[in-house]
Amino acid sequence: MRGLLVGRFQPFHLGHLAVVRHIVHDRPTEPLVLGIGSAEDAYTPDNPFTASERFEMIARALGAEKITGWLAVPIPDIHRHSLWVAHVEELVPEFSRVYTNNPLTRTLFEKADYAVEATPLFDRERNEGASIRRLLREDAPGWRERVPPSVASYLDSLRATERLRSFGAPSAG
Ligand code: NAD
Fold this sequence. Notes:
Largest sheet: 5 strands, parallel
Bound molecules: nicotinamide-adenine-dinucleotide
Number of strands: 5
Low-confidence stretches: none
Strand content: 15-25%
CATH superfamily: HUPs
Helix content: 40-55%
Order of helices and strands: EHEHEHEHEHHH
Radius of gyration: 16 Å
Strand order of the largest sheet: 3-2-1-4-5
CATH topology: Rossmann fold
Number of helices: 7
CATH architecture: 3-Layer(aba) Sandwich
C-alpha cells in the first residue's frame, strides 16, 4: 500500500528531501505519493511556484538521489476542511498511511481513520519555506545551501529571485 506525504513544497528544500529519504529508508517497498498541496496557488509571495514547477523540483531532486517508486499528485485547496480528505481521496491513488507534521492535516486524516505519522524535522531553523523564500527574494547567499543543488539550478533557470522581487514584500509568517 502507498504512503502519502502532503506539502506545499514552496520550494522543495533540504528538509523535504530529508523526509523523503527517511520514509524511503524506513519503508523501501512502500510506494510514496507526494501530494503537492495548494496546487492552484502560484505567482504570489507565499506561493511563488506553480504545481508543475514544484513537480519539476521534486523530480530533479529525487532523480539526483536515485530515489524511484514515487509519484506526485497536485492537490488544489478546497476551503471546506470537513470535505478535504474526500477531495484528496478523489485525486490520489489509494493510500493507507499519511506522513505529516502539519496539525490540521493530521487532525483531518486521523478523523478519517488513516494511520498518520510525524516525521523528524531536519535543521528546521534553516530549512523552512518562508525563510528560504525571503533569502531568495534578497538573493542572499544562504538560499542555495538550503535546497538540493538540482533545485538551486532549476530556481536559477526560473529567475526565481526576480519573480519573488516582482511581488513586493511577503506577508508575515
Ligand atoms: P510544507 O511544505 O510546509 O511541509 C510539508 C512537510 O514537510 C510537513 O510535514 C513538514 O513538517 C515537513 N517539513 C518542512 N520543513 C521540514 C524540515 N526542515 N525538516 C523536516 N521536515 C520538514 O507543507 P504543509 O503546510 O504541511 O502542506 C499542507 C498542505 O495541505 C497545504 O497545501 C494546505 O493548504 C493543504 N491542506 C488543505 C486543506 C483544505 O484545502 N481544506 C486542509 C488541510 C491541508
